[in-house]
Write a structure and sequence with these properties.
By secondary structure, the protein is of the alpha/beta class. The protein is 36% helix and 20% strand.
């Protein structure tokens, strides 16, 4: 079947902001789909609310809308653009759910939009737990025993019938949101109530527990004629009970017999055929090794996190192929260099792929590090090796948790075998590191299997690594025998870890193994559907099959590694754009990265991709093999910067801003003396390594002060301290404080407006496209604060000062490339907070709002010493931007119900959205809407603020009165408001009796909450208010600034209604030179 000619314009829905369970794999799949469909000649309309993505760049689709993802906004876009078709299965769960809602409300019929790829009834059969069960019964595929409930009472009755423990699974959710494993009635009541709320249709499946079974996944691709292929077989190394997003996984399956794989495949084909998906589907099975029973757990009729992994593990671009199949092509019509055509494809790689997750428990105080059926990971890495041991150890060093091997994590090596086995009773993010130490203390493979249900094969492999390590340590202080060193390298031990356990320099090990001819060799993974494209992985267990080209000058870009809070998709965005820009400048580009979710690890983003950990050993090996002219380290966040100076010591040329300058910006003393020399003010500060020093500095500066460790990204360990007592407790809790890594103490600028500026600099000139104004005041991490670009409330004079300071600093530091500056304005005076001479989190935001290609411009400057091209900076002109962008952060608090969702100096958001409008109020309103927090236009607002905010609360109450809201307030706030003559009703706090605030929230009487935290000095904790807001999905603001913006946004939309939607391309055409 050739491509369809009855459709011309296709609408693609993106997945929105990055949240736990739905990360940048959907940017990768959406970008691929746009490429495939445009190549086939279709016009593409793309909608997504996440500005940090490649897919929302104006070049990727024909028409791009950065708008909130909901039915009303999509109807506006459909009415305006009139697409012929909608492709919903590349936007994750968000895309599928929206497609279902649009169909239900009759909008697709009204505008004659066909759904391609996956049919609406197929979404229902795949997502609705009842429909799925019906389909499975019809084709004779067994499922776990279960029944559906629509209330807690029904769920209790079903659980009694099935017997505890039971698993609760809400319909139409992902990442296991709202679900969980419960062992008794009380737990069931809590989790079921949460699940009914999380589900789009108020439906929760109660299912028998199949804990400890093997969890196995197949990735299937089907075309319109019903031809099917299995792209990948994935085995979860952790058994059922741990969400697959949190499990170690291997591809291919390592312990599953051929015969069982055939049975799974046969069932998967029956399932996919009955659901009739066109494109990729992920099918999850459970297998009981004792009774040999197979049950299907669920299917995802869309590209998923697993399909991104399967694509990168096998070289089969699932999203690209899915888009082509949705357009009517069949597998037989897609050519492939290795198999002839894609219908002949079989997964036959002779290597092992391991996926391992990355968590962020340290960011959320009060959260237990426990893994269960609800996903907790914020990112993942993938590694490829010739053997399980090699790939497993490579995955571990890719994670960047400071661990280069499996042993000696935390203090586990000091614990007894009994203690370690007790710690294994419940899965945690460190489970495999604890297993390693337990084996070292003499635990048997059987003992570990009985507790963890991790299969004998995997535990045995680990035991062999422990034995090998114990033998190596016998020669501590010197090199081991040559045989031992060669064997260690073949089994995946990294140079760095060997140097740690042997206590000799890493260089000694590297030089010895090179002398022995033990160097990394590389093999290619063929990309299906292309004639001869491939990407490469290293191994010490094969001969080198890596063709190196020398016809073009080469440049290597270091990627950002796994997604985590503080370093996410924004840095991948920069790396991808650098690769595109370098190609245009005539270079061969090389990317090194290990994150399977991203666009940077797509085979055609760079000329050559190395799927490798970002460690000195791996990067140096590639550098010596490829001999590039230089390496770019400033785009991948903290990851490549931490490597830069070591690489430089080993003779690697770092292009752009030198590592020494980047270190200078981190060194408080050097930076401060530079600011003094330039006459630029900074808040008073000092550095301390002891409690006494800290107290003395705070006494001199005056409280409140901001304290933080040096050298961190994402504000790890930052706090605002108000008195001596808190300072003593902070200093005693601080870890790893040494004279060369002191604690930094700054005067906290009270009630200061925080802002930032991104600059492009060529070392003598710098250009600032716009100043961003933070809505939250100083004290909230810049990654978590909502921000407005261009600024609204900063005086022209202050904007001029900020631009002037930024240029002065960039020129003084000879920054070549990008730089980000953070400022605070207190009482009309601008203070510098910090300088980051590298790409920052806000680069994609500034690029999109100001219509400026920041990364390509920076890349041009960085390579000018090679190309001798003139600097683009002098020709850049200030722009007049006739609209505002408001960025709002998205938080994972719904996944961590025990955490107080209050904002502070430590970053905790996982993603962001953007609201665009010619009016600041509407832009703010749309940004809130895009985070799935629809601000109410009428109703009751609850106001309860701390004593510091009382003077300002009257203005807020006045605004809400003007907007026609009823006002309810707690004691002190009520007095302040009513004394000002504003009508309000008092309400009791939790400890003052009933009916209280919590009762009102629970009964749905409150539509908006304004609550600034009382702080830890208060006897009574008020976090219950904010936690209840999240549980009841009620919009809440924890700062006065946020409340003011909310009120103004509501007032604007009340007066003017919802304006028309405009595409990014249209908005950009309205930007003019000043």
């Amino acid at each position: 079947m050739p491509k369809r000619n009855d459709i011309n314009k296709v609408l693609i829905i993106g997945s929105g902001p990055i949240i736990i369970g739905q990360a940048c794999e959907f940017d990768y799949s959406g970008t691929q789909a746009c490429k495939a469909l445009r190549k086939l000649g279709y016009e593409i309309v793309l909608v997504n609310s996440n500005p940090a993505t490649i897919m929302t760049d104006p070049e990727i689709a024909d028409v791009t809308y950065i708008e909130p993802l909901n039915v009303r906004r999509l109807e506006q876009i459909i009415a305006k653009e009139r697409p012929d078709a909608l492709l919903p299965n590349l936007g994750g769960q968000s895309g599928l759910n929206l497609c279902s809602e649009l169909a239900k409300e009759g909008i697709l019929d009204k505008y004659n939009v066909q759904v391609i790829g996956v049919q609406v009834d197929a979404i229902e059969r795949g997502e609705d737990r009842i429909e799925f069960k019906k389909s499975m019964d019809a084709i004779g595929v067994e499922m776990a025993k279960s029944e559906v409930s629509y209330s807690v009472e029904e769920a209790l009755a079903i659980a009694d019938k099935l017997g505890y423990p039971v698993v609760l699974r809400p319909a139409y959710t992902m990442g296991g949101a709202g679900g969980g494993l419960v062992y008794n009635k009380e737990e069931l009541k809590t989790v079921c109530a949460r699940g009914l709320q999380a589900s789009l249709v108020g439906q929760v499946l109660v299912e028998e527990s199949i804990l400890g079974w093997e969890e196995l996944e197949l990735e299937i691709v089907r075309d319109a004629e019903g031809n099917m292929i299995t792209v990948c077989f994935i085995e979860n190394i952790d058994p059922l009970g741990t969400h697959t997003g949190d499990s170690f996984c291997s591809a291919p399956m390592l312990t599953i017999s051929e015969e069982l794989q055939k049975r799974l495949q046969e069932q998967a084909y029956r399932i996919v055929d009955s659901v009739k998906v066109i494109g990729g589907t992920n099918v999850q099975f459970a297998h009981d090794p004792i009774t040999d029973r197979i049950v299907v757990i669920e299917i995802n009729p869309r590209t998923s996190r697993s399909s991104a992994l399967a694509s990168k593990a096998t070289g089969f671009p699932i999203a690209l192929v899915s888009a082509m199949l949705a357009a009517g092509l069949t597998l037989k019509e897609i050519e492939c260099g290795k198999y002839g055509t894609l219908d002949q494809y079989v997964p036959d790689g002779d290597y092992v792929v391991i996926k391992f997750a990355r968590w962020a428990f340290e960011k959320f105080k009060g959260v237990e590090d426990k893994l269960g059926t609800q996903m907790r990971a914020v990112g993942e890495v993938m590694s490829i090796g010739k053997t399980y041991k090699e790939a497993f150890q490579k995955a571990n060093r890719s994670l960047e948790t400071g661990r280069y091997g499996l042993g000696h994590a935390k203090d586990y090596d000091a614990k007894t075998k009994e203690d370690l086995l007790l710690m294994l009773a419940h899965p945690s993010s460190d489970r495999h590191f604890i297993m390693y130490e337990a084996l070292r203390k003499g635990a048997t493979v059987d003992e570990i299997f009985d507790i963890t249900k991790v299969k004998h094969y995997f535990v045995k492999q680990m035991q062999e690594l422990v034995e090998e390590e114990e033998a190596l340590v016998q020669s501590k202080g010197a090199l081991p025998s040559d045989e031992a060193l060669i064997s260690a390298k073949k089994n995946g031990f990294s140079d760095k870890y060997l140097s740690q356990i042997l206590e000799i320099p890493e260089e000694t090990i590297r030089n010895r193994r090179i002398a022995l001819g033990m160097e990394e060799a590389w093999e290619g993974v063929h990309v299906s559907g292309t004639s001869d494209s491939a990407y490469y992985y290293s191994t010490y267990n094969a001969v080198d099959k890596n063709p190196v080209h020398t016809d073009k000058p080469k440049i290597m870009i270091l990627g950002g590694g796994p997604n985590r809070i503080g370093q996410g998709i924004e840095f991948d965005y920069c790396c991808v754009h650098a690769a595109f820009a370098l190609k245009e400048l005539g270079f061969e580009t090389i990317i090194v990265n290990c994150n399977p979710e991203t666009v940077s690890t797509d085979y055609d983003t760079s000329d050559k991709l190395y799927f490798e950990p970002l460690t000195l050993e791996d990067v140096l090996s590639i550098y010596h093999k490829e001999k590039p002219l230089g390496v770019i380290a400033q785009f991948g966040g903290q990851t490549p910067l931490n490597l830069a100076s070591e690489l430089e010591k080993n003779g690697v040329k770092i292009l752009g801003t030198p590592p020494s300058i980047i270190d200078l910006a981190e060194d408080r003393d050097l930076f401060r003396s530079m600011m003094d020399k330039l006459g630029i003010p900074m808040p008073e500060a000092g550095m301390a390594t002891t409690v006494e020093e800290a107290l003395a500095i705070a006494g001199k500066i005056g409280y409140p002060v901001m304290v933080r460790p040096s050298y961190v990204l994402g504000g790890r360990g930052m706090e605002v301290v108000y008195d001596d007592e808190s300072m003593v407790s902070y200093m005693s809790a601080a870890v790893g404080v040494t004279p060369d890594r002191p604690i930094l103490i700054d005067r906290f600028l009270n009630h200061a407006l925080e802002c930032e500026a991104d600059a492009i600099s060529d070392g003598t000139h710098a250009f600032v496209p716009a100043v961003m104004e933070h809505i939250e005041l100083a004290g909230v991490h810049s990654g978590d604060s909502a921000c407005i670009i261009p600024s609204v409330h900063i005086t022209e004079q202050n904007v001029a000062t900020i631009k002037e300071y930024t240029k002065k600093i960039a020129e003084e530091m000879h920054v070549k490339g990008l730089m980000n500056m953070q400022y605070a304005i207190e009482k009309g005076k601008v203070y510098v907070l910090e300088a980051n001479p590298r790409a920052s989190r806000t680069v994609p935001l500034v690029s999109k709002v100001c219509n400026i290609r920041m990364v390509p411009l920076a890349t041009d400057i960085i390579t000018s010493e090679i190309t001798s091209r003139p600097s683009p900076v002098p020709n850049l002109k200030e722009k007049d931007i006739p609209y505002y962008g408001v960025k709002e952060a998205v938080f994972p608090f719904n996944m961590f119900p025990e955490v107080d969702p209050v904002l502070g100096p430590e970053m905790r958001s996982t993603g962001e959205v953007l609201g665009l409008s010619p009016y600041y109020g509407e832009a703010f309103y749309k940004a809130q809407e895009a985070t799935q927090t629809q601000l109410p236009l009428r109703g009751t607002v609850l106001i309860s603020v701390n004593s510091k905010d009382k003077p300002e609360v009257i203005e807020i109450a006045q605004l809400f009165k003007e907007a026609g809201f009823e006002i309810i307030a707690t004691d002190g706030t009520y007095n302040a408001i009513s004394e000002a003559g504003i009508e309000a009703e008092p309400v009791k706090k939790l400890y003052e009796g009933r009916p209280n605030v919590l009762d009102l929230i629970t009964n749905g009487k409150i539509s908006l909450i304004i609550n600034s935290p009382v702080g830890k000095d208060s006897v009574h904790d008020d976090s219950y208010l904010r936690k209840a807001a999240i549980k009841g999905r009620i919009p809440y603001m924890t700062t006065i600034a946020g409340a003011r913006a909310t009120a103004k946004g509501i007032l604007y939309v009340q007066k003017n209604g919802n304006a028309d939607v405009k595409s990014l391309q249209q908005l950009h055409s309205e930007v003019k030179d000043k």
